[in-house]
Design goal:
The protein has 394 residues and is α+β, with helices and mostly antiparallel strands. It has 13 helices and 16 strands. The two termini are 45 Å apart. One of its GO terms (molecular function) is catalytic activity, acting on a protein.
Length: 394
C-alpha cells in the first residue's frame, strides 16, 4: 500500500463520523415521517444506471459523470441525480393508471468535481417527485411540503426564491432574437454576476429601450408586487402566461399560509436544463449555497416514452446540516464495565436493558485504559467488579 494514499480519499469523497451520522439520521427520520404524512411513498433506484438512458437524460454536465464499463461493454454511470432515475421507473412501471404519482427518496448522488472545486462528489439528498399533474396546484404542494419538511428538521430561518424559467427564456428571446445570445446572457444570471450582466447588456447592439428593459429585468425580485411589474415588462403572450402561473402559485401559497417565507425572483435560473416552468431555491442563514431546489420538468418523461407533467424538489443534507449549526452531541449509551468473574451477570443486565429499548455496551474493565474517561463518553456507567454489588456512576 502506498503511504501517499494510505489516509487519502478520492477527490470529493468524505467520511461521516458517528456524531454526524447520528445527527443526520435523526433529521432524515423526521423529514421522512413528514413527507409520508403528505401521502408520498419512498422508492429506491440502483446506484448504477445506463449512460445512454439516465446518464444522458439527467441535466448534469457530461464531465461531471462518473463512468465505467460493465462486462458487456455498456457504459454505466453512478447516478448524478434522482429525478431522471425516478422518471425512468415511473415511465416504465408505475404510470399505468390515470393518477398522479407521489414518490419520495433518500439517497446519495455522485458528481465528479474538479480539483480546484473543493465540493463533495458524493452527497445525500432527500426529496420528492410529483408526476402526472400539470396544474399549478402540484407546484404549490411541492413548495409547501419542502417548507414543512424543513420545519420538521428544526430549521427556522430560511427563505424560498421562486422564479419561472419560461418567463426568462421568452423575455430574452423576444429581445435578443437567438437562443445563443439568450444563453450567453442567462449565464450571468446563473452565476449571479449582475455586474457582468449589466456590462454585457451595455455592449449589445440593441435599442436604448430594449437595453433599458433588460436592465429593469434585474428588478423583478420581491413580493407580490413583482407580478404587475413583470406584466408591464413582457410583451409576449407566452411570457404573460408564465406570469399568470406565478400569480396563481402565490395565491396557493397564501392559502397554505406560507407566502411569508417566499420571495419572487424572476431572474432565477438553474443549471438543471430539464426545468420547463416554475422553479425555486431555498436559502438559510450562514450557508453560501442553496440548501434545496426544485421545479417543474414537463418534458423529461418524454425521454422515457411518456408525456406528462412533473414537478419535485431535492434538499441537500450536507447543506441542511450546516444550516442547522452545531452537531448535537448526545451521550445516550449505557456502559457496563465488568470484571471476568461477573461477565455473565453483565451480559444478562445488558440484555434486560436492551429489551427495554436502552442502548448498552458491555466492556471488560481490563480493556479500558482510563475508567474516568468513560464518564465523558457514556450517559451512565455501571461497574460490576469483584464480589461487590453493582455501582452506578452517573
Amino acid at each position: 500500500m502506498s503511504s501517499l494514499f494510505m489516509f487519502e480519499k478520492p477527490l470529493g469523497m468524505r467520511d461521516t463520523l458517528p456524531e454526524t451520522y447520528e445527527t443526520k439520521n435523526k433529521i432524515k427520520r423526521k423529514m421522512e415521517k413528514d413527507i409520508k404524512k403528505w401521502g408520498y411513498q419512498f422508492i429506491e433506484t440502483p446506484t448504477l444506471e445506463y449512460y445512454e438512458t439516465v446518464g444522458s437524460a439527467s441535466a448534469i454536465l457530461d464531465q461531471q459523470l462518473f463512468k465505467l464499463l460493465d462486462q458487456q461493454g455498456h457504459t454505466l454511470v453512478l447516478r448524478p441525480d434522482m429525478t431522471a432515475p425516478i422518471a425512468r421507473v415511473a415511465a416504465s412501471k408505475l404510470l399505468t393508471e390515470q393518477l398522479p404519482l407521489r414518490l419520495a427518496y433518500n439517497a446519495s448522488v455522485f458528481r465528479a468535481q474538479q480539483r480546484e472545486g473543493g465540493r463533495p462528489a458524493e452527497f445525500e439528498q432527500i426529496g420528492v417527485e410529483y408526476i402526472g399533474d400539470k396544474t399549478i396546484s402540484a407546484d404549490g404542494e411541492g413548495i409547501a411540503l419542502m417548507i414543512s419538511s424543513l420545519k420538521e428538521a428544526g430549521l427556522e430561518n430560511f427563505q424560498l426564491s421562486i422564479g419561472h424559467i419560461g418567463f426568462v427564456q421568452t423575455f430574452f428571446l423576444q429581445i435578443l432574437g437567438t437562443k445563443d445570445r439568450a444563453d450567453a446572457l442567462t449565464k450571468y444570471l446563473y452565476e449571479k454576476n449582475y455586474v457582468g450582466y449589466r456590462q454585457h447588456v451595455d455592449k449589445l447592439s440593441l435599442s436604448s429601450i430594449d437595453k433599458q428593459r433588460l436592465h429593469q429585468f434585474l428588478k423583478l425580485r420581491g413580493g407580490e408586487e413583482v407580478i404587475n411589474f413583470a406584466y408591464d415588462l413582457i410583451e409576449d403572450n407566452k411570457g404573460k402566461s408564465a406570469i399568470d402561473e406565478l400569480k396563481q402559485l402565490w395565491e396557493i401559497l397564501v392559502d397554505y399560509e406560507e407566502a411569508g417565507r417566499v420571495k419572487l425572483d424572476l431572474t432565477l435560473v438553474s443549471h438543471m436544463s430539464y426545468y420547463t416552468g416554475i422553479l425555486y431555491e431555498v436559502y438559510a442563514e450562514g450557508v453560501g449555497f442553496p440548501i434545496g431546489s426544485g421545479g417543474r420538468y414537463d418534458l423529461l418523461l418524454e425521454k422515457f416514452g411518456k408525456s406528462t407533467g412533473a414537478t419535485g424538489f431535492a434538499i441537500r443534507m450536507d447543506h441542511l446540516l450546516e444550516a442547522l449549526g452545531e452537531i448535537e452531541q448526545t451521550k445516550d449509551i449505557h456502559c457496563i464495565l465488568f470484571s471476568g468473574d461477573r461477565r455473565k451477570e453483565a451480559f444478562e443486565l445488558a440484555k434486560e436493558k436492551r429489551a427495554a429499548g436502552i442502548k448498552v455496551i458491555t466492556q471488560d474493565i481490563n480493556g479500558v485504559g482510563n475508567v474516568d474517561a468513560c464518564t465523558k463518553q457514556y450517559n451512565e456507567i455501571s461497574l460490576l467488579v469483584g464480589k461487590a454489588g453493582m455501582e452506578v456512576v452517573k
